[in-house]
Every structure is written in C-alpha cells, then in structure tokens.
Amino acid sequence: MVGRPDARTALQLTAHSPTRIPTITGDIVRGSLRTGFFGDGGTYKSEQVKDLTKDHYRLGGFVNAENSGRTGLTYTIDNDKKVIEWGALVLNDKGLVGIDGLNELHGDELTEIREVLSDQEVQVNRSVQGSAPARTRVIGCWNPPKQLMNYENPAKALQEMQMFSGPDYRRWDILVPFRDDDVDKEDIHYRDDGEKPYSEDFYKKHVKWAWNLTPADIQFGSQFESELKTQSLNIANSFEFSKLPIVSGAFREKLTRLVVSWAVLKHSVTEDGNVLVKAEHVKQTKGFFEDLMKDLGVSDAKADFQEKNTLTEDEFEELMDEYSEDQIELLEVVHDNHPISSSEIGSEMDLSNRSVKEKWSDLKSDDLLRVKSGKGATTTPRTIQFIKLLHEVHGFTNGTSKGEGGNSKDNDENSSDSGENS
Known about the structure:
This protein is an alpha/beta fold. The chain is built from 19 helices and 17 strands.
C-alpha cells in the first residue's frame, strides 16, 4: 500500500493484538482489536485486508457481507440435519476476520452483529440451539452514503451511517478514513511493487506468537500505570463528547488494548520471553491515536457540537424577549417530565393539543426542544442551560418569576397593566 502510514499501523496492530489481556486493576478483558476502514471506493481498503487474510499471508477469513449477509458471519441452520453451521466469526475464533461491505448489512443483521461483537459469542435459540465463542480480531471495511469530500469531515460521515449508534463507536478500537485524494497520484503510479518487508514465514510466526499470548504472558512496566492514566485523561479531555463517543468513559480499557498491541508489535519482551508493556509505548500509542482523531476531524466535530449546544447569556436574554409565558412554562414542563406527549403537556397547562404544537414550534427551531413521532417532546443540552439560567438569572418558578415578573413580551405587558390597576 502506498502512503497511509496510519492505516498500515492499524492493520499491524490488529494482527498483533492478543486475544485476552490484563488491565491495571487485575481484570482480564478483550485484547483482540476491531479496526474499521471506511471511505471512498478504489482506495485499497479491502485489498490490503485481503492481502493479510486471504491472498498473501492467509492469516484468517475474509467475508463479503453483501453476498454472505448475517449467515456468513455468524451461523446458518441445516434444517435437514438439524445442525448449526457456524460462520466466519466462529470459525476464526481467536483468529482474524476481514469483513467487506459492512454498510450492506441492515436491520436485524446489524443488531445480531452488534450483539456478537459485544458478547464475543454467537448464540442460537431457534429450532436448533447452541453457542460458540467468537473472540475474533476484526477488520471491517465499509463505504459511507457519499464520498468523503462531500462531508465537512470524516466524523460527519460516521454520524450518517446506519451501522453506528452510540455503543457502536465504543465497540471499534480503531477507525481510519480513506479519501480518494489521500495519496498523490504520482506516488501511486511510480510505486515500487517490490518484496514484502518481511518473509511470509517470519511474519506469520510473529503473528501466531501474538495470538498465542495469554494474560499471564503480559507484564506492565514500573511507570506504565501512571502514564496510562495520564494519557487516557488527556485524550478524553481532547476528544470525548456524547455525539461521537469514540472516546468515552471506558476509554482507558480501549487504550490498554492498543498499547499492549503496540508493545507486542514492537516485540518488547523480557528475558523470560514475556511481553513488557512500558510507559514509552503509552506515549507512542497516544501519538498514533491522536493522529487518527485529527484525521477523522473529531476535534472539529466536537467544537461544532459544543458551539451548537451552548446557550450564551446574550442569546438567552434574546429568547426571553421573544417567548411568551406559556412557551417558557412549556419548556419547564418538558424539562421536568420528558419524554412527554403534546396531549400530556396540554393537560398539564390546560391548553389544546393544537395550541401546544403551535407554541413548541419556535422552541424546536431554536433547538430547545426535540419531538419524535410516537415518543413526544424531550430536552436538548440547550434546554438544560436555558432552565438553569431561567432560575439563576430570573428566579423563575413554575413559569412565573419572583418579584416583577418574567422578561417575555406577554409578561411585560401584564406587568404594565398590573401597575396601572394597582
């Protein structure tokens, strides 16, 4: 493969990830990495995975998800013989599977694959019942709905994909975007198709050594724990946000997987032949992961998300001038009871269903309210900030302010009338 050093590193880290690893707390967790290559067609995503699993090194299985569907990955049932025929994820337990065209899986198929990735086991509860382990390293390839050039950044493309929901981001350890213009055309046409950097025999032996490692074969150096905690926090501070939870509260475990794989790839071993994971491996892995996050545009996506979901005091005051008392009370009702239907809001506020929908129209436009069919109205991050400012700045309680009344136009008029009549 020409260019794309991060993609090459991701491929090698995945191939060299141990099946199970220890953590700094003494738990034994998944060590086998899951890597996703996504982006434009014709960028050598699938070919390099085939080279590793099917064509050259033959280090695992390769499945085309569009052709095989769920059955090729998990299982199918032979109804005549009443037996389960296991798919690639089980047949390559403790091994490696490349999956092309993951974006072609839909609905129940995606749900089942998610469960397998989470449980590392395939369970069958149909006319025939059974279960089998699927502790498999996975390199998945998929295309977003449009070319990456049509997105503000690759992170936006991930957010558009059906195969990703909140937990799905956490299930993948490495995500690498492939753009059509990543590599200079001249570099591609003048590439040197020489020999592989390592002999096939040597490379396969090194990978198989990694696959045979047990948690007892992995040791942490003296400064490893401190460095892991420090860099995990640093990465979380830079890249964690709820809309794109590639980095989440459980990130330290993900970072541990990556760092252990890094140490294995570098063949960092003690005199006894155990893998020695050092503080320097944490720093090196952090640099690699930060490069991936920057290439994905996660920092830009996070900044954009925070800007859109931040309510400044000036904007708050402008909205207070625009909203009626009923609209402010409606926000408070939703805040205290969400999700809540329009009829339930109407009953709470003594308003018709039509009137409720008219009043929440502006609130939806200002991203202070979200409404989903069949679920009703719920809050947004801006709702929380609005209600907080409502009570802190204006002392509102149940839709009315302490003292002189609210700042809305309706309330100003009512305050004026009250003053004349007093």
